[in-house]
Amino acid sequence: LGTGSVGQTIATALIKNGHEVMMGSRSARNEKALAWTGKNGNKASEGSFDDAAAFGEILFLCLNGSGALDAVRSINKKNVNGKTVLDLTNPLDFSKGMPPGILEGLGNTTSLGEEIQKVLSSAHVVKALNTLTAQLMVAPKLVNGGDHNLFICGNDADAKKQVKELLAREFGWMPENLIDLGGIQNARGTEAYVPFWVSIMQARGNPLFNVKIVQ
Ligand SMILES: NC(=O)c1ccc[n+]([C@@H]2O[C@H](COP(=O)([O-])OP(=O)(O)OC[C@H]3O[C@@H](n4cnc5c(N)ncnc54)[C@H](OP(=O)(O)O)[C@@H]3O)[C@@H](O)[C@H]2O)c1
Question: Which tens digit of pLDDT belongs to each residue from 82-108?
């Protein structure tokens, strides 16, 4: 779900791996989604957010932070029953310039990940991939031979296991580098890190980096 650079990057990587992917948007026949299907062969399709939710075995939420809750509210709940939802959105507020802040009401005492889980209560939301640039999400080996960390959290152990296996199998993440922080409330921390990520990116002038925990 999402027609921006993240949605395009994830969807294209999955198509290259042989999967069928539907790109979801606010309305079917979105211009960017049609351009993407035009370039990606007969395993690529497009539709509304609800169409994509119904189609997907696993959903990737690649939504603008300020529109993410409206987008997930547009999904028929029966279409996500029991499904794993990998949420990589960030509740960033760019209205006061750079670096961004966190959108009012979506930080400190809650997070976008938690609010999405409340809306999609029949699904299993796993927050992951929101702490690094899109290119690196699907090709971790571009930095330090792939030896750097990814933080994931969510309330359902099986959904987190499914996401960890998918990240390793589809994109080449090293299983030992996936740090499970616990329940979805830990999205407060990973989302709050992103304004700091932006400051580091501005200081270095390059988004191709990540963090590695050492002890
Ligand atoms: N860029 C990165 O490298 C990166 C890295 C980590 C995390 N992220 C996070 O990934 C998410 C996606 O980023 P992006 O740059 O690819 O795309 P984006 O431009 O932030 O979001 C695009 C999607 O959001 C939907 N959208 C926008 N406003 C909406 C509204 N009011 N109601 C419902 N849906 C709305 C759009 O729907 P339509 O298709 O209908 O236009 C589109 O599908 C963001 O939360 C971002 O913080 C980005």
Answer: 999 999 999 999 999 999 999 999 999
Q: Ligand 1 center to residue 12 CA distance, Å? A: 16
How many Cβ atoms from other residues are within 10 Å of residue 36's Cβ? Answer: 21
| Whole-Å CA distances, 189 to 49, 182, 208 | 27, 12, 21
pLDDT tens sequence across 169-197: 999 999 999 999 999 999 999 999 999 99
Closest approach atom of ligand 1 to CA 92: 47
Tokens at 14, concatenated: 């999955």
Q: What is the structure's pLDDT at 84? A: 99
Average pLDDT over residues 16-44: 98
Q: CA 46, CA 27: separation in Å to the nearest integer?
A: 10
Q: Determine the distance separating the centroid of ligand 1 and the alpha carbon of 4, expressed in angstroms.
A: 5
Residue 193: HSE in the Cβ half-sphere, 13 Å Cα cutoff: 15
Ligand 1 binding pocket, CB closer than 6 Å: 2-7, 25-26, 30, 62-65, 67, 70-71, 88-90, 92, 130, 133-134
